[in-house]
Amino acid sequence: MQDELYFEDFHPGMKIPSLRSYQVTSEEIKEFAAKYDPQPFHLDEAAAEKSFFKGLAASGWMTAAIAMRLRVESLRVAGGMIGAGVEEIRFTQPVRPGDWLHTETEILSARRSASRPEISVVKSSTVVLNQRNEVVMRSVVSFIAPVRDL
Asked: What are the distances in angstroms from CA 131 to CA 41, 71, 95, 139?
């Protein structure tokens, strides 16, 4: 999807895969954790082995940030993807060093704003999958898309 997308381009049932996969590294897991989620199972292999995760695991918030990157690259919303709300986010299994993540997004609905006719609200469901096609995160989010034809 090279062209920018507007309200008129979104339809319920539309599916958008990410344009690429993203590889997670142990260095990146530790850097993100040190800055934003400093817990032992994100920072230190030895501590992580003794934790619930039984090994180094990425922060769920890092997974969400990677998902956002992949969505923005794949769904080129005109003017940028502006969040309108998060209905659900679930981290279903750990993301490990070496995992390759990709996303699959489905459009659930698209409606014009009653108070601002130049914009719409698009509701979408995204799954983040690893290289084995195991779901590591699910989310339902809404974003704003401009209306092309006023």
From this structure: 22, 17, 11, 19
**Residue 9 near residue 107 (C-beta atoms within 8 A):** no
Torsion of CA 23, 29, 32, 37, to 10 degrees: 130
Query: Which of these, 101, 122, 113, lies nearest to 29 by C-alpha position?
Result: 101
d(CA 88, CA 125): 9
Task: List the CATH code of the domain at 7-146.
Answer: 3.10.129.10
Q: pLDDT tens digits, residue range 10-51? A: 999 999 999 999 999 999 999 999 999 999 999 999 999 999
Parse the chain into domains and list their residue ranges.
7-146
Residue with tokens 């014009």: 112
pTM above 0.90, yes or no: yes
Whether the CA torsion 129, 108, 7, 139 is positive or negative: it is negative
Report the residue count for the chain: 150
